[in-house]
Amino acid sequence: MTEAYIEFCPQASLVTWLKEYPNLVILRTLSKAFALAGLRCGFALANSPVIELLLKVIAPYPLSTPVADIAAQALTDQGIEAMKRRVTEIVRNRTYLADALKNLPNVEQVYCSETNYILVKFTDADCVFRSLWDQGIILRDQQRQYGLAGCLRISIGTRPRVWNSVITAIKNRQTANV
């Protein structure tokens, strides 16, 4: 089971299930809430027999020393506190952005999110995507995914200027089309 975004919704963790399900493996990453995507580092939570089996098949040195050092630093008390502050800020920014988008006429729906991104259904998703792309704002087009026609994914960061520029760009695009 992946818990890549669990720091944004810790109450949904399945760690307590490890007692009941001996073969359960929970995968986590430092990419999302820890803001270490370039590190490409994650870890597994599992019962001892499963970990022992994994250790038999894993590469002898799966992490370089610099990656291991950075990961260890991220998981210190200070690193955890920094991650929690970052998550709190991202959640606040996500709420602000979602509320602002809900008021735009070309937004059909802003889906609930417990992650560092929101999914938005637009009446004119192709135009919004292209317009923002042309302004250097990269969204993820989800329209080819089953059931997500008209949907774009907007990542939430910790820099207000970034998500304010998304809102401004969408508003400016609407004004230009009126």
Automatic annotation (TrEMBL):
Keywords: Aminotransferase, Pyridoxal phosphate, Transferase. Coiled coil: none annotated. Its cofactor is pyridoxal 5'-phosphate. CDD domains: AAT_like (cd00609). Belongs to the class-II pyridoxal-phosphate-dependent aminotransferase family. The lineage of its organism: Bacteria, Pseudomonadati, Pseudomonadota, Gammaproteobacteria, Enterobacterales. One of its GO terms (molecular function) is pyridoxal phosphate binding. This is Histidinol-phosphate aminotransferase. Signal peptide: none annotated. Residues 3-160 form the Aminotransferase class I/classII large domain. It comes from the Bacteria.
